[in-house]
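[stage:ingest] chain + small molecule (guanosine-5'-diphosphate)
[stage:ingest] validated
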Amino acid sequence: ALRVGIVGLPNVGKSTLFNALSDAGAQAANFPFCTIEPNVGVVAVPDPRLDRLAELAGSKQTLPATIEFVDIAGLVAGASKGEGLGNKFLMHIREVDAIVHVVRCFEDPNVVHVEGSVDPLRDIETIETELILKDLETVEKGHQRVAKAVKTGDKSAKAEADFLARMEAHLSDGKPARTLEVTKEEGVILQGSFLLTAKPVLYAANVAEDNLPDGNAMSEKVAEHAKTEGAGSVVVSAELEAQLVELAPEDRAEFLEAAGVEEGGLAVLVRAAYALLGLITYFTAGPKESRAWTITKGTKAPQAAGVIHTDFERGFIRAETIPFEAYDRLESESAAREAGQMRSEGKEYVVSDGDVMLFRFNV
Ligand code: GDP
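[stage:predict] done
[stage:export] tokens:
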């Protein structure tokens, strides 16, 4: 499953948000893996198309796509030098696909700010500086690793060393790795480099409930900052989310309406994470179960099948696929097939968002 790490300074609302998100996930129906560890929560990705498919296919089970949220507590100034939970914290970040950076954009005299005042841009810089310092360390180690090979005249080692030098200069300027423009070859090196600041970031500006849905002057600054570094941003209220999960599901819509918001923060975050990561969904539907699967835009049929099982990818023959829109309109697989809406696709087929797929494979 996709793993998203929640980071931020202490007392910005991370745990409040994390608990609300994982409670919301725990309450979703037919949930396969709820709790993994105390700080890891799995949430179902809300998708009305999946419910419709399950209804049409008469499925016994409905299995939504899932995202794992990991609460990564303990980042403080000096973490890269071992302050706070220091290195342990940074190790956890290495393992996630994307980062949700919670930024405090609410005033509350009862909630102490570690820096003494509320200033989202300063907070963002504090966290980013620690991550950049850690990345500089990683880049230096990389240099040492390739140095010998460069001396023997190894061309690919030379290319890597040049790239690392460019990255080092960039990081030293206080810029995150994800804003460095890279060639295709460098992109491959970067992917293998495990740099923390190369990961996609979504800023979650945590505002007071009455600043929803548009946010406030502080969250606007966060959004502007996000734009300058190719990151995403959303406005959430951790407190509102915490109240929301306390309610019975049937009372939630009314509560949200009263707060002036259309949907809960979970749906907002999930959608933003999908957009940020370029993710799409395909479906499988049958009497046993209907299920949503997450892939990256541009994934071809065999690799999409591989998300279900590696055997599906290895033995891939063909994929039968119906666009969701056609399935929805014609109301069954057989009707879609008769109407010529079920296509048979080969290895080069690029899966589209909403494809309802059936894989043929050798075992
Ligand atoms: P963490 O250290 O980042 O995990 O922060 P917590 O989630 O533990 O929150 C720290 C304190 O801030 C708690 O007392 C929360 O109740 C409070 N808090 C969190 N979000 C909000 C918010 O949106 N508004 C206000 N007023 N308090 C909040």
